[in-house]
């Protein structure tokens, strides 16, 4: 995929910071209690739901390697849907998640319904997706990509009282090789005692972010679900 190099600024609200925190071995009830006491006044912003991601990558796992090597300009491609993990997927969305230094952005492309599960064939869905995508660089990525990882987790959504900071809580993280493809020695992996929290805010709010992040009693960590899942299933170094 041809990688553009935009200049993120506070005038472009789609670019935002995403700070991830790891809470390992901490009960969800304790995490929720600590967040209720946070001075930012976090409250529920959206009903919790299950998220499913089918990550796409080239056969040489270029997106994985680019991330592991720490490239400041990188992109990930995934198909996302909510609710049941398999069966008839009614409203899938193709997402391009871009990273430019410390800030990121997402672009969305609606996809036609498809069936996911044993026997899933990506080729017909790829053809339908290419017919809908006008962005040449995204189309190039899709044309060369294959399903690389399936990922599923449960997410809670919170927002600060002033509406400037959003926080998600991800639990029950599970990773699996896509149908019909073996990534390595393992077919499935689950994070049984890990909760990943993500603080998200616009570039313009960065000046106040340290105050909010500093009151989160969890470990700040670079955490990519795609990279961790591929590493766990293949044995590659993340």
Task: Describe the model.
The chain has a single domain (16-234), classed as Beta Barrel (Hypothetical Protein Pfu-838710-001), CATH 2.40.320.10. The radius of gyration is 18 Å and the shape is globular. An 8-stranded antiparallel barrel has the order 1-6-5-3-2-8-9-11, surrounded by 6 helices. With 238 residues, the chain is α+β, with helices and mostly antiparallel strands. A hairpin with a 5-residue loop joins strand 8 (146-159) and strand 9. The protein has 6 helices and 12 strands.
Kindly give the count of domains.
1
CATH secondary-structure class:
Mainly Beta
- DSSP strand tally: 12
List unreliable stretches of 5+ residues. Answer: 1-13
Name the helicity range.
Answer: 10-25%
Q: Biggest sheet, open or closed, and with what strands and sense?
A: 8 strands, antiparallel, barrel
State the shape.
globular
Arrangement of strands in the largest sheet: 1-6-5-3-2-8-9-11
Structural features:
single chain, 238 residues, alpha+beta, Hypothetical Protein Pfu-838710-001, 8-stranded antiparallel beta barrel, two-stranded antiparallel ribbon, 6 helices, 12 strands, 41% strand, disordered N terminus
SSE blueprint:
Layout: E1 16-24, H1 28-36, E2 43-57, H2 62-68, E3 73-82, E4 87-89, E5 93-100, E6 103-110, E7 114-116, H3 122-132, H4 136-144, E8 146-159, E9 165-176, E10 188-191, E11 194-202, H5 206-213, E12 219-220, H6 225-234
Antiparallel strand pairs: 1-6, 1-11, 1-12, 2-3, 2-8, 3-5, 4-7, 5-6, 8-9, 9-10, 9-11
